[in-house]
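User: My instructor asked us to take a sequence, write out its structure as tokens, and then describe one feature of it. I'm not sure where to start. Here is the sequence I was given:
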Amino acid sequence: MASLNRVPPDVIHEILINLPDTADLGATIHASKTFYKVFRAHPQLITDTILNRVVGAGLLQVARLAFYALHPARIHIPQVDNLPTEDAFRSTGWSLNRDMMSAINARTDVAQTLQDWYSLRRKDRTSLQSQLDAQELARFRRALYRYWLLFDAAMHNGFIRQGEHANHQHLDATVTLSMNIAGITALLNPLSNQELFEIMDISAFLRDLEDWDLCAAGNIAPRQVRWFRFTPSDPMSLAEMLREHGTNSFTSMRYKYLANDPAVTATQSILRKRGVSEERILDPNAHPDAIVRTVCGQDDQCSRCGVVYGVNLLGSTNMHLLSGIVAARERLRLLTFIDDLEFKEMVGYFGGIANIEPVPDEIVVYDMMKLDGADADLEHWSRDGWYCVECIKHLFRQRFMLWWRSMKHQGDLKPDVRDEASLL
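Assistant: Let's start with the prediction itself. The structure tokens for your sequence are:
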């Protein structure tokens, strides 16, 4: 420790601002009183330097989100009325401690996961890494963190004012939803129209991701259940689902919601009061550039049918998306079976209840494409091509059973027979 005491403060300062992330900053200043003393001399400068480099876009919003998550006792219930504004995090008025840094890091990691997926679905289908430019990234991050705050507040009854409802756990569902919408409206009111459309775009993206998950979970389409939702979507659980994709571990939720996301309901109400036209509010195509300014390959055509599908085409980079787009029961309707036994084998395979792991879609699709000639149809398919969903369905219809029988003959598939009730 004596050697650290001899290190000049300006050298320690340079060491601190060049640490790789906020977690290392926290560990360093807690491990050494000398480093902590230098940090306390310029806490905001050091913090901002690291956070702006590591967290980047959306720093104010993620700091506010983390602050809310860490103060449930002081912000009673916790009520969002006591929450500092985003501008409060521009100054030295907030404390960056180890817990705060950990909360920021966790939410930044979630944002990165969702950002990569968002870019794949909305920006550039050819890359699994985010291709959002600086402005698009800033829009995405600030909208995601703001939306996430709405979810956290609703989940912790943050929009239920203390004293108005002493026993808030037994509130009527309609009252709870109404209070959530009112509270969300108050939080979103200071935002510009552009920022409100960003919130709507994030909501639509997360809802699409929920639908994809419902379809991909066991590869079974979601039941059509009428269910009112009282909170926005949960970004963290959706990011965890994406990280676990491939291990067949998906969220257990099986609802197809009837009611709008309360965040969208509140946003639409604000926009109407500002005189924004109903067409622009309700038509997603009326504000396609809320976050993404340019779409890579938006005029690209399907390699088979020649129709323009742009970012919705499937190819070598994103064929894994098929599991959440074409559900098991829909695939079953595409196929022609030899007998009831073969049909039941298919039910077990697609339903994830056979004694084998389903072969990943991307492998199945490209195996079917390689069946050109022999007993296959005369069409030519290319692994380098990009295809629309309807044409991929046609490929399943024409060649899946040929692939299946070939795999069984080779001994690569040994399905058992299960009851088909789970899919029918």
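For the description part of your assignment, you could build on this observation: Confidence is low (pLDDT under 50) at residues 73-78, 219-228, 246-259, 417-424. Try explaining in your own words what that tells you about the chain.
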